[in-house]
Amino acid sequence: ITPIHRAREMLTGGVRISLPALGLEELVPKVQAVLKSHPGAIAVSLEVPVAGGKKITVQGGNGAGVAASDALLAELVEIVGAGQVRFTGSPVKSSPPRPWEKARRS
């Protein structure tokens, strides 16, 4: 059971940040500073616009993780705007079949 006040922290598997094309050079250092101020184990990826209206996704390297929190979200939204920061779920771990499920499979 996950306590509601710890749900974001415990269930977040990644943080995805969409960066705008305009002002990218000025935003990246600000985003980096915020990420460094919230160290943790959650993976970070940046969606960066490229020519032709396409985007590439850049995954943070070793040591680039963050701690998922309301403060992190608020600081990032202030920089990149509402709707540009998404917390993604962590992968669901499969559990072994329960005894009654094993019986049905046979």
Which characteristics define this entry?
34% helix; alpha+beta
Q: What layout of secondary structure does this protein have?
A:
Layout: H1 7-11, E1 12-18, H2 24-36, E2 39-50, E3 54-59, H3 70-80, E4 85-89, H4 99-105
Parallel strand pairs: 1-2
Antiparallel strand pairs: 1-4, 2-3
Helix pairs in contact: 2-3
Description:
The protein is an alpha+beta fold and 106 residues long. Strand 1, helix 2 and strand 2 form a beta-alpha-beta unit. Helix 2 packs antiparallel against helix 3. The protein is elongated and about 60 Å long. The two termini are 31 Å apart. The model has no long low-confidence stretch (mean pLDDT 83). The protein has a 4-stranded mixed beta sheet. The protein has 4 helices and 4 strands, in the order αβαββαβα.
Number of strands: 4
Instruction: Provide the residue-averaged pLDDT.
Output: 83
Using the alpha-carbon principal axes, give the shape.
elongated
Helices and strands, in N-to-C order?
A: HEHEEHEH
Q: For the terminal residues, how far apart are their CA atoms?
A: 31 Å
Structural class label: alpha+beta
Tell me the strand order in the biggest sheet.
3-2-1-4
Strand content: 25-35%
Tally the helices: what do you get? Answer: 4
In which range does the helix fraction lie?
A: 25-40%
The unreliable regions are none
Major sheet size, sense and barrel closure: 4 strands, mixed
Radius of gyration: 18 Å
